[in-house]
User: Fold these one by one.
Assistant:
Number 1:
Amino acid sequence: MRRLLTVAVILLVVLAAAGWLAREQLGEILFARAVQATYGTDATAGLDDGLHVILCGTGSPLPDPDRSGPCALVIAGKQVFLVDAGSGAGRRIGQIGVPLAKVDATFLTHFHSDHIDGLGEVLMLRWAASGRTVPMPVYGPEGVDKVVSGFDTAYTADYGYRIAHHGADIMPRSGAGAQAFTIPTRDGAQTVYERGGVKVQAFGVRHDPVEPALGYRFDYKGRSVVISGDTAPTAVVARICNGCDLLVHEVLNPDMVGKISATARQRGDSRIAKIMSDIPGYHSAPVAVASIARQGKARMLVFTHIVPRMPTRLLHPFFLKGVADVYTGETVMGEDGMQFSLPARSTRIERADLL
Ligand SMILES: [Zn+2]
Ligand SMILES: [Zn+2]
């Protein structure tokens, strides 16, 4: 028995030593396999015909290692749309496995920095990956042309470097950056995109002093998704939803933010205390959103743009206190990588986690 044990130990030591000596070759083999397995990954490839939402950023301006800035992918049939491009959006989309080359258009809700600060990265990665000869259409409220031309100015030098390095046939200059499409300020909902059975409507929300600020509704083959954008509670969202399948709504817990504000005040940090006491006024508390979901007869409510940052899910019950008393449908705390699938002409809502 002892001899057997000795032999086993010697064998283990020999194997470990062989592994150590061959570590470079092992690494090479593993890397080559990983490239084979992951190259060309496309999370949209196997999707059924229908409307799908993938959350690519559920955070806010507050730094959060688990949540990228505001970002949602909406896939309708073969078309792919992006709603907002917050910080880290492009990298998160890559991590989820949706090729940026596939994004047909971007819709911006408003121009708070956290909703646009990932746009440059998204545009650059899409251009590099696609070789498209036309820029990304970017729809947004009045002022979208300034945002687009600002990014264009910032990236002009890099456009030149990339073309010089790879050649204009690989990275055609005409495909760099974005083309702005301004959505005029109007009361009520307006159709801003209609193609291939997909209808996108924009509607004004309440995010004072940010004016205008928009939400969007997507319809495709009998299924519907409403994305609130940043807003204080407003009946407009309930009216637009009107029995929608999925309501993706921003949320801020004022009790939690109040505690941050009080702590800042105690520590003599009156600037942060002031900022923290200002922000609940133009966002929506969980119970207020639940009430909108109920009024709007949403079939499922998904929270996004979650403020404040919560380092653990154990805090979710406190965050969601009172929500279930108001809205009896399913409520989901959105996380980066969550996918919600609404197959065409059905009532099913299927969920998957892509991260
Ligand atoms: Zn925001
Ligand atoms: Zn905002």
Note: The first strand starts at residue 50 and ends at 57.
Number 2:
Amino acid sequence: MRIAALGFHHETNTFQSVKTDYDAFVNYEFLRGAEIAEQHATANSTLSGYFQGAIKYEFELVPLLFTFTGPTGTITKNAFDRITAEMIALLEEKGPWDGVLLAQHGAAVSENFPDMDGEVANLVRGIVGSNVPVVMTLDLHSNITQKQVTNTDAIVAFRTNPHLDPVERAIEASDILIKTIKGEIKPVQRLVQVPMIINIVKQPTSFGPMLDIVNDVNEVIKKPGVLSASCGQGFPYADVEHMGVSFLVVTDDDIEMADHLANWLAKRAWNRRSDLQNDSTSMEDSITRAMNAPTTGSPTVIMDVGDNVGGGGTADSTHLLAEAIKQGLKGERSLLMSLFDSTAVQTCIDSGVGSTVSIKVGAGTDQLHGEPIEVTGYVRAITDGRFEEPTPIHGGHRFFDYGPSVALITKEGYMLVLHTMRGIGNMTRQQYYSIGIDPQHYKVVICKGTVSPRAAYEPIAREIIMSNTPGVTSADMSSFSYKHRRKPLYPFEEETKFD
Ligand SMILES: [Zn+2]
């Protein structure tokens, strides 16, 4: 059996001013054919799971194209058209196929298609026809649509956040695909969209109401005849009509059971809606609490929710840095954080290791993420910004490139790690180990994220504080002006009904 694998993977924050063009994909990750195996066969990603599925279920996996870039603004029409044209050409040239495995995100928005993932599935279906099964994996943050469902035989979404299960889900998707090709099963799927959002600070799956939701999904999966069940948590920073929570159940040729179970999951989540909203700590209280924490050899980790790089943050917010200076936090190893600032890095590189510089750092992208902060500091180290994380972390990435990077110790005793690329947040401690820093030895660590840094920082944190900072990924949803979301939608419209 010959199975094509393709992925055009993006989580789109439509509130971000920086559009995502073709070069953004090329400069981050744009892989074809054998390059995909080189980067993913030993990673912990969806593609890695497809390679493992090929071994387990004995099929020939033909990786065609996989591209991905960090969460940024709306994908340009040009990027969408060029990338999908190449995907389609490869599918046509290298076929025929027994099946297709797609590795999509589910919250991608292009200028021409608000439901970009649905359109990718539609284009693929158009090439291979209705007799060739197509199975698609999605991120847990997907805004799942009927178009995605109509153009696939089955969809399987991640079930953990941080996303530690892409490999398992991809193997599950491979299993469904192969059994479908062999005629052993006939998947049918039912989607129920719930008129609500889950606030970003309530999206971790290891505790709280989201754990209850995942437990419900796992309960459904155990039932005979159920092939898969997924919750799309939704990605609230994509201003599109289909933004929100959804449930999808895939059964073996029993649409009534799929319908019943998807509705059961949806109702149970709806009843928990008030517990799934923003309860994060104010910026001022976050710093005060962290400053007053005992110095025990494990840091207080403050999540900079408004600059969640994994959700489209700019990686250069200075709001919490300014607040720490204002409240007088100081002392050796009192604070550790990273900032995207190419100009500051260049100044430090020009001055050299061992020099002292006075520079402005951060807040270079837009007006939402604070003011550039004047610091005087000692240039401790300079690296090329490349590092590797061999253990499973959020999303299963292995190879990272943050561009030329500098470790700068300020006169307050803060360690600022400055990068020339935005990267994808603070999701691995290797980011700091690779420049000679052990985050465990700091009093306060600021992470630009909400959930994705947890796999890296929960093991060393004495406490994790969700900080209600301003920014393009703020937990305060009233700070965004939506034009396209559906109405009513809870909690925006308190009186929203769901029957
Ligand atoms: Zn996600």
Note: The chain has two domains: 2-276, 283-475.
